[in-house]
Amino acid sequence: MSVMKHLSVFVFIVIVSLWQSLAFAQEETDEELLAKGMWRDTETGLIWMRCVLGQKWTGTDCQGEYKVFNWWNAIRTAKETNFAEYDDWRLPSAPELNTLLAGKVIKGKEAWDKANGKIFPFEKRTAVEQSDILENMAYSGVEGYKTDSLVYKSASWSSSPVANNSNDAWVVYFLNGDDDGSHKYYNYYVRLVRSSQDRKSTRLNS
């Protein structure tokens, strides 16, 4: 290997090491996240806003007037949100939002049978519908969230469209402990999520 190739490899290693050190330095502890109005789920690694949009974390609870959004506005607002110096907030997928359900959560066909099976048997769904149910359906029948109980128990939008109907998307009902498709024009609450905590905002704070 030539001297230049050796040098290139060395520079690459140095850059990667510096990037990893910077990312680690930017990480915040669970306590720091909670104080800033965020909560990290240690089971999934996802970082959630403690409050639904429209409310603010006061240090002890969520205060303020809840805002509701149709699905398209929820997607747009998530992309525009800058909170706690992070600008990579997004609307969670249905499987991600389902991880917040309280109680023992069942998924897929089992969840569908529990919630809808007597009226709409899974076996009579189309192949596309069955695939969508297997990916996005969840049920616990328990009100609220698995932790962080101060969050408003709302019906919240996911980013997941319903596979067989372009007008619908999946909504998680934390008052009932299940999820279902709903028309995108309807208004529901929004709780945003981040996938990691090493990307600080590149925009000015709002």
Provide a descriptive summary of the structure in words.
By secondary structure, the protein is α+β, with helices and mostly antiparallel strands. It is 31% helix and 17% strand. It is built from six helices and ten strands. It starts with a helix and ends in a 12-residue tail after the last strand. Mean pLDDT is 84; it is low at 18-25 and 201-206.
Keywords:
single chain; 206 residues; alpha+beta; three-stranded antiparallel β-sheet; 31% helix; 17% strand; globular; disordered C terminus
Trace the largest sheet across and list its strands.
1-2-10
Q: Estimate the mean pLDDT confidence.
A: 84
Distance between the termini: 51 Å
Tell me the total number of β-strands: 10
Number of helical segments with 4 or more residues = 6
Strand content: 15-25%
Task: Provide the gyration radius in Å.
Answer: 20 Å
Low-confidence stretches: 18-25, 201-206
**Rough shape?**
globular
Helix share bin: 25-40%
State the major sheet: 3 strands, antiparallel
Order of helices and strands: HHEEEEHHEHHEEEEE
**Structural class from helices and strands?**
alpha+beta
